Amino acid sequence: MQSQTLASQQCLAMPELVGEILHQVAPGARDFEFISGEATATLAILARTAKLFHEEALTILWQSIRGLKPFLALLPSGVWEPENAAPIDLHRCFEYTCRVKRLNITSTKEWKTLDRKEVKLYDSDKIAERIFSKLPANQSCLFPELVDVRLPVDFFGAGAFRGRLFLGNKVTKLEIYPEESCSIEVGDRSMLWWDNMLNLVRPMAKNLIKLNLKLIMKYKPVDELLSLYRQSPKLQHLHSLPILINKKTFDHLSRLPGLKHVAFPFETGTAESIIRAQDRAPDAPIFSSLRFAHFEIDQIGPLLRLLKTWAANNLTELHVDRSQWIDTWDLDTFFEALSLTQNRLTLKRISVHERLEDRVDPDLESIKLSHAGFRRLLVFRNVTHFSISAHVPDFINDGFLEEIATAWPQLHAFQFKDNTIRWTSDVSINGMIKFISACEKLDTFSLSINFTSLNDADLDITKLPSFQKITSLGVRMSVPPSSAIRMVAFLHHVFPKISFHKFKYHVRDTVLYRDLEVDADEEYAAMLTIWKDVAEILRQEHSMASIAKMSREELELWGPIINSMAVFFGRQGAQTGGQSAGVEGFSDEDQEIDESGEDEDEEDDDDDEYEDEEEGGEDDEDGFEDEENEDNETESEGEGDY
Fold it and tell me: Compositionally biased, Acidic residues: which spans (predicted)?
């Protein structure tokens, strides 16, 4: 009896029990995932009202933060007055920042969120310098326990004090990305930012396992990168697009024993020199642990020869971008050569992107892709994610989708993105439904569809199947005005899980695309009653900013639609409810999920959700939701009153 009592007491030990309860509230907290807004509110209430849960709830609530709002809310007002010599007390701030393990700073504009009328008058670097000068003697940065951080490159300008606040010696995962507002291509200034960044990153290089440098630079710091890589023996994940890689750097990276994920473009001629070196030393280890490869290359042949010697059966993801310097994008040759590696590569994710935006007048005839060429990819029977970005060829029809479903029944994502506005797909509604039904695990689908059969009076939309698993849909279509209502009703019935405000159904690839012409306001209203979430997207600043950037042709279409939306939702307003969590740093109105995600730099991460989505999401340039990417994380950090 006594032993059972002791065992029971040990089983119900309070610290362990508290931890289990809170981790049920916030799943994924053990892996430092961003927690949902609902979980944030619950944790904030527990931290405020229950002494038993206070410390543990605070730890979970603060360990993963997206954005600077919670942190900025803690700073004393004196910080925002750089000219004021009065002492400032940061003790309260340190009590919380020492709990942060993961931080994603989505924009430098967040320095202005505390007081938009006054703070914008001050230099943010001076503010950061003032904070930095008040750090305790034993603290090298404001977030001493931070291990995973995402910073805009703008934080490394001038004295780089903003960068210094966040980069401590415990950082193991670092991503630095450009913002639209900063021009890193300006010669001298880009070198200044680069030097500042290197000086801060070098001390932590020995601990880095993930390094993403998504910078566009005229100055090519290849030698400096090589020096940094040599100091980072633990690297597993390296993303340095679009900084070119030469043979010397490649030789070093290819022999890192733990490198599993690489993304970089080759300098012209690098691939050939690597092949010659491999021919001289065929037994030299090359990317022995590689799982994910993402390359931009101007010659496909050398890349394929490299793949034959890499990774044996380890490589499962391959993403290739067409260099803007390639005149002919011969995908038939590429797919044929790639199929010859089937005995060495167990590919599960394949992505091929053509960057037509770099060309003023894209020549569709320069792309060589035939049905026979595409079929060669079907020898890889384990494919779960496929994405291709090119003009849709004529062979894309219902029969083609049947072949895909037979060869790849385990597909999770299938995306055939047309970079043009030509609608050449012959895939019908029935063909799409059969394909999605055959691929039971499919959750992402993108293709241009022929919706003319919606005009068939015998088509009963309510009798069509409903696909609950499809959460991301991109369909381009051209329908007559008379079919607009039926089309929306069809999509609503067949894909009930799609919603606008979570960016799972992208506005530029929807029923509102440029070919849709609807004249009557009542038809707009009928469309909008089906997806009321459109109101949410219109109330968000980033949505209005994207509208402001539209071309004249787009505005001609969008103007009436936006006006109709405004009229239709004008009386509904943005009503927000709920009780204040009442915990410092996290206010109730700030607990709304930040749907803009992390991938402003990735093409709204569809361009990286497909950013990679950018992680994409991010949602990286590959178009898939990277399993390691922030873009695949639960939205929201809960901000406000902590």
Answer: 586-642
